[in-house]
Each structure stands twice: as structure tokens, then as C-alpha cells.
Amino acid sequence: MSTSTTSAPPGTQDQPPARAAPRRGKRANARTGWRRALRRDWQLYSLAILPLLFFLVFRYLPMIGNIIAFRRFEPGGSLFGEEWVGLRYVRMFLNDPTFWQVFRNTLWLGGLTLVFCFPIPIVLALLLNEVRRRSLKRFVQSVSYLPHFLSVVIVAGITLQMLASDGPVNHVLGLLGHDPVRFVQEPEWFRALYVGSEVWQTAGWGTILYLAALTTIDEDLYEAARIDGANRWQQIWHVTLPGIRPTMITLLILNVGTFMAVGFEKVLLLYNPLTYPTADVISTYVYRSGVESNSFSYAAAIGLFEAIIGLVLITSANQLSRRTVGTSLW
């Protein structure tokens, strides 16, 4: 008995299946499409050059300087430090009681700012959306927007002058029979002073994005809700708030990401040695340690620690938002 075998043509034995060609084709098509879009809309893409340069020069290149958090840096010496010291400066601030005090102050101010400054623009936008008189709506918008255009120096100066021991607020309290209150010198008043000034300065400007988001809601949804017998509060709860939810989640994630970066300029302008127990935050502590005390490596280690916490917060908030409500930044 003989068995016949069919031999394969030469050059075709043991060849893997050709599967990489489609992938290469897709990549080539993507590159071709990108070049075509760049040639067609190069004027629009050129507008992104300056913002990209700004972030490159002032955000990404300075990250190289974080190396001095692990090296001993001396002013006038090597740009990247004199010698490697490892985690010496990290252990220094972890064992420093002053650092943990300013860390708690940062959490307090960041938390209060988030609790008050995030929902107030939403409420104000909803109230303005219900105003039917256009003249009144424009007046309220203009008055609420105005503080945003004032510099932090002016806002801090107004706050200090209004709440000074001989300022208008204490003058009114004196007329009512109360003793003057040392708002600026008492540590327990600083958090209310800071958060109040922050709300006054940012609440009106924060409504712009929400008012823009409100214009994208389909009017047919309100008409259907009215037909179903929903009143104004029910329409806000079931139509308006779900309509602006993506904007709310996006801004919340961004605010959580800057949770630890409490306003450095305003704190620096408002606080004084008497209010350090509640006013001193990580950013001002880094400023005093690095610029005033010339401990640049120690300040860099603290700043790197703050940046890592911010990265963890914004990443966690983004993941939590994507899993719970299906909206995220990336």
C-alpha cells in the first residue's frame, strides 16, 4: 500500500500568516490623514503654538529641577545640585512637626474652598437662568463678574481694609454696641476670611461655563416635563442638572486636582505671623523655606510631595467619575 503526498510549492512552506500588513496600512492611513489635515488647517493648528510653548517652558521644563529634591543644592553651584543625598530631605519634612501643621492647614483651606466655591456658581447660574427680565439678568451678571477682573493684590487690600480694627466692619459693630473684632490678627478668623474673599471673587465668573452649558439643553425636554406636570423645582432637578452634569463633573475633577494648591498669592497677602497656626499652607511654607531661607532642596522635596498628591487626587477623581457617572476627562 502506498500513500501519495502532495508537496507544497517551493518557498511556501512554514510561512506565518500575513497579519501585520493591515496594521501597518492603518498606521500609514492615519499618518496620511494627519498630514492632510495639517496642510488643510495649518492656520488653526498654528494658534496652538504659543500655548504649547508656554506649557513647555513654564510647566514641563521646570520639572527637571525636581532632581534637586534628591541632591544637595547650593546657590551659585551646579544647577542640578552638588551631590546625591537620596531621601534625606524627604525624611526631614516628614519628621518636621511644622510641615504637618501646614499640611493640615492646606487640607482645611482646600476642603472649605471646594465645598463653598464649587456649588455656589452652579446655584447662581440656575438662579440667573430663571430670571426673565433681561436687564436685571445683565445687571446681576455684571456685578457678579466684576470682582474676577480685580487683581489678587486689590482683593486682598480691600479685604484687609474692610476688616481692619478701625475698618468699616468694626465701625458698624461699634455702632451696634459690640467691641472691635481683630479679624486680621486672630488665627480662627483666617479661614472664613480667605474662603469669603475667594467666593466673592470667583463665584460670578464661574457661572459663565454653566450658563453656556444651560443653553445646550433642548427646550423640548422642558416642554415634556411641563406636560407631565413637573413644577420648576422638578424641572431643575430632572432636566437642568442632568443637562449640565458633564460640565459639573469636569470642573469638579479640575478643582480636586488643584485641591492642594491653595491660592498662594492670596494667602501670602492676607496672612501674618499671628495667623500662621491656621493660615500657613504648603505653598507659603515652600516659599519661605526656599526663597527666604535658601533651603532650595528642602523646598523642592516638599513641592514634589505636593505635586504627587495632586496627581493622585485628580487621577482618583477621574476614575471614580468614570465608574459612577460615566463622565471623565480621559
Classification by helices and strands: mainly alpha
How would a crystallographer describe the biggest sheet?
Answer: 2 strands, antiparallel
Instruction: Give the termini distance in whole angstroms.
Output: 69 Å
Number of discrete helical segments: 17
DSSP summary, beta strand count: 2
Low-pLDDT ranges: 1-13
Widest sheet, order of strands? 1-2
Tell me the β content: under 5%
Shape: globular
Rounded mean pLDDT is 85
Describe it.
The chain has a two-stranded antiparallel sheet with strand order 1-2. It starts with 19 loop residues before the first helix and ends in a 6-residue tail after the last helix. Helices cover 66% and strands 1% of the residues. The chain is an all-alpha fold. The chain has helices at residues 20-40, 42-46, 49-60, 88-94, 97-117, 119-130, 134-145, 152-162, 168-175, 190-214, 219-227, 232-243, 245-257, 264-270, 276-279, 282-292, 296-324, and strands spanning 71-72, 83-84. The chain has 17 helices and two strands. Residues 1-13 have low confidence and may be disordered.
Short description:
The chain has 330 residues and is mainly alpha-helical. The protein has helices at residues 20-40, 42-46, 49-60, 88-94, 97-117, 119-130, 134-145, 152-162, 168-175, 190-214, 219-227, 232-243, 245-257, 264-270, 276-279, 282-292, 296-324, and strands at 71-72, 83-84. A two-stranded antiparallel ribbon has the order 1-2.
